[in-house]
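Following the same procedure, sequence and fold were stored together, as reproduced here:

>
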Amino acid sequence: MIRSRFQFPIGMSRDAGVNLHLHRHNFRFPPCLTTVRRHPTVSLLRFSPITPKLLLRHRFKSNTNFIPMASAANNPTDNTHVENPGSDDLRPTTPEQRTLAWPEMALLWIGLVVGVPAYYLAGSLVDLGMAWWQGIATVVAANAVTLIALILTGHPGTKYGISFPVFARSSFGIHGAHIPTLLRALIGCGWYGIETWIAGEAIFLLLPESIKNSSFSQVLPWLGTSPLAFTCFLAFWVVQLASVWKGMDGIRKLETISAPILVFLTMGLLIWSCVRAGGFGHMLSLNSKLSSSEFWALFFPSLTANISFWATLALNIPDFTRYAKSQKDQIIGQLGLPVFMGAFTFVGVAVTSSTGVIFGHIISNPIDLLGHIGGFATKVLAIFGIILATVTTNVAANVVAPANALVNLSPSYFTFTRGALLTAVIGIVFQPWRLLSSSESFVYTWLVGYSALLGPIGGVMVADYYFLRKRELIVEDLYSSSPTGAYYYSGGFNLTAVAALVVGVLPVIPGFLEKVKIVSKVPEVFTVIYGNAWFISSFIAGFCYWGLSVLLKRRKVSSCLGPQL
């Protein structure tokens, strides 16, 4: 038995006895264990009560949410001794910065949910043939799944005060974290362009008819849109940058102020459609245009698309939960997503259905709906609501993650503001007017397509944090580029995580190529995989990462520690 090899003083714990034994006998850690920190409040080594294997186990005695640094043992909330933080934007938040209670987290979701894409997504389900209740049920089910992902990935943000780029270092490596953060940033840039284009369309509606009918409104084939529409897009693009100039503090104030205004305007739109359509009887009487087999063939891709709608936030939610007061606040606050998304979906479906009565045909695009609403004052008020909803969604959902990713990429050059500016520039390159050309291209090409990238990233990070690390991180090493750091892996890259990411994406590629018409036909199994891209890719990547990590860790521990004791 392994206990017979050590004699511990009476009353001394096994962990303390092992450490004392190693100290007396001048035990030298093998290279694979040089990342262990000599910390007065840490039990460095612990023997498993089940097997005689030596396990690494970092057990912090602090009862605070913030894990103490090695140089701050007597002050667990002091994060001023972080090694090489790179930028103030990436430092762990201090207790004074953690001011978000659950009502403020819920208000954040109002600003995020109330927007044209969310309305358009709900209305497009009815447009594609679903009954009103099927569309709402699909959205609510998808957001319930997304809520689980949000709470899981939001936990380390609140516990350690770290942002998404820093959290990604624990699983992908100090340098490898650039891969998931830049992929997330790229998709955020695309969304930024989409939201900005939508607001630009609203501005276009306010222009005089003489200008809208001029030669400047003619579509240029090489551009894909008209110079006039592109100018409106650029005008809002410039104005919107002012909202992110003050960083996260400015974004938080904007979300808090705008939330009640957006609720008021949303209720106004619902009441308008109810009065004009003579109630919701028409909506309630609408039946599905789909057969049972057609519905299920549409349901799962639609479920994936709705999950993908918030899959971006599900990854970088630590950027917000790091400011939460407690885990309770971040969890209760996150419940705002399915609640408010369900309510706003009802508004979107109700208004979309009522347009069939009011105008004789379904109008799922709210911008097109504005063109049919009479009265200049009504138009101005509605356009104000769209612009406000666009700004609140855009700056919170599509600027924070890309900006932080760029700061993480080059802390010496990028600040949050510079990162936000580059995000806006790349948003133009995405040519959002092409992505919004139809419901199918928006839902099944854009949303489902990028879920194949975000799903595997989330799968790897969740598997690493919950199943391998048991929610314990060494915050000091998250900011250290030392080769002896716990998250340095191989040259700063965790090749296991990168391999799992690639394996998770590969099965989705054939279906995507068929969807964008690069290939004409693929086997049916790949079409099914593509329709469920987020679920399948995240599970494959998470399982592969967990399995490979456990296998490699067992081999490494047995080879390194076997001869030492």
